[in-house]
Design the sequence.
């Protein structure tokens, strides 16, 4: 009886999660660090919309409004973010494949959100991958009377459309080609898997993976890491006493910087191409198209199993923006990309449109009030 109740409860919970949509797009605004004029984000409405001002135009003209499933302002903490995505993470333990992408220009806070390597030592700055792992280990412990779980991780990098296993013995020289057998599906199963028992185990491995990124590059870590995608995969295998088994994956994808300022034209080409392929795949999924163009990039091929249509996959993209003035053009391009992929049915395109109309009306009222006040 108890087990059935727990299961029903979980099923119900997953249905509620599903209603929120399988593809969600969030925007996170980094704090301003060095711009005396302040932020180009001049309004955050109802936690799901924001307004950007073009610094080169008068305020009333250069204003653009964007809507997302959620907007996190510069004062939001890592824990605020995690609190919101916790149900999504927990659904991995119920057999869902979850992909979390960090998108944005270099310096906009992608790594901070995902893994925060510099602040990794301080508890409160832990990125969502650490918080998620803590949670997964805690959950698997809590359920240990009902099920047995094994958690494994691997980490790969995609640089100029070449995939590298960052946790292989001889990582610098270990490139593996994607085996696209018959239908072109491929898995990351060639990558070296490491069994892990705690978040600390994973942090150690991530450090190793990051070090391996440096060894093979001629430039500094920051430089190289901003021009390649990294994927940390957490694979959960479970066996419940009821006899059910589960196999699911959680991917943390720290994407290459979406900058138009990449100097090396070859690198820029690969970055732009793979990011736009990712956009195409997510848009095709959101629109429930019959053809999903996975094959156009290594990134989407590698993640194909976790990005396929149907009930067992969930995708979340964080669009990161740097709100400083000289990032205006890149911020707009990030927001446009994110807007393009956020056209899901539920709470998507239509809801967004209505919402932005209401917001524009509200602003108009504010402006009129101001004008009236000024005339008195
Ligand atoms: P990216 O990975 O997109 O290139 P980073 O995550 O490295 O960017 O962030 C650039 C700098 O900004 C880092 O020093 C990081 O600690 C800081 N930073 C980014 N986002 C935040 C935030 N939300 N709060 C505080 N500091 C942040
Ligand atoms: Mg980074």
Sequence:
């Amino acid at each position: 009886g108890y087990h059935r109740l727990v299961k029903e409860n979980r099923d119900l919970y997953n249905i509620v999660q599903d209603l929120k949509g399988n593809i969600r797009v969030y925007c996170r605004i980094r704090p301003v660090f060095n711009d005396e004029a302040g932020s180009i984000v001049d309004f955050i409405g109802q936690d799901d919309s924001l307004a950007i001002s073009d610094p080169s135009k008068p305020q009333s003209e250069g204003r653009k409004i964007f809507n997302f499933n959620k907007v996190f302002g510069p004062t939001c903490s890592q824990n605020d973010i995690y609190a919101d995505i916790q149900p999504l993470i927990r659904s991995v333990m119920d057999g869902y494949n979850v992909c979390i992408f960090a998108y944005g220009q270099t310096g906009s806070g992608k790594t901070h959100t995902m893994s925060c390597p510099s602040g990794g030592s301080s508890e409160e700055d832990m990125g969502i991958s650490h918080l998620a792992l803590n949670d997964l280990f805690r959950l698997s412990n809590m359920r240990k009377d009902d099920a047995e779980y094994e958690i494994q991780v691997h980490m790969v990098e995609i640089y100029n459309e070449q995939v590298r296993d960052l946790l292989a013995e001889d990582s610098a020289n270990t490139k593996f080609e994607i085996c696209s057998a018959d239908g072109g599906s491929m898995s990351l199963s060639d990558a070296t898997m490491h069994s892990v028992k705690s978040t600390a185990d994973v942090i150690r491995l991530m450090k190793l993976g990051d070090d391996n990124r440096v060894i093979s590059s001629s430039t500094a870590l920051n430089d190289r890491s901003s021009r390649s995608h990294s994927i940390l995969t957490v694979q959960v295998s479970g066996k419940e006493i009821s006899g059910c088994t589960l196999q699911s994956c959680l991917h943390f994808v720290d994407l290459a910087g979406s900058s138009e300022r990449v100097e090396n034209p070859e690198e820029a080409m690969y970055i732009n191409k793979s990011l736009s392929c990712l956009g195409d795949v997510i848009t095709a999924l959101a629109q429930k198209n019959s053809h999903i163009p996975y094959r156009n990039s290594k990134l989407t091929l590698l993640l194909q199993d976790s990005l396929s249509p149907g009930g067992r996959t969930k995708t979340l993209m964080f669009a990161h923006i740097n709100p400083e003035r000289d990032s205006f053009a890149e911020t707009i391009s990030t927001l446009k990309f994110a807007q393009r992929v956020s056209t899901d049915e539920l709470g998507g395109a239509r809801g967004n449109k209505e919402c932005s109309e209401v917001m524009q009306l509200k602003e108009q009222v504010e402006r009129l009030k101001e004008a009236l006040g000024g005339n008195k």
About this structure: The pocket of adenosine-5'-diphosphate (ligand 1) is lined by residues 30-31, 104, 106-112, 118, 226, 257, 320 (CB under 6 Å). The radius of gyration is 21 Å. The chain has ten helices and twelve strands. Confidence is low (pLDDT under 50) at residues 180-186, 344-355.
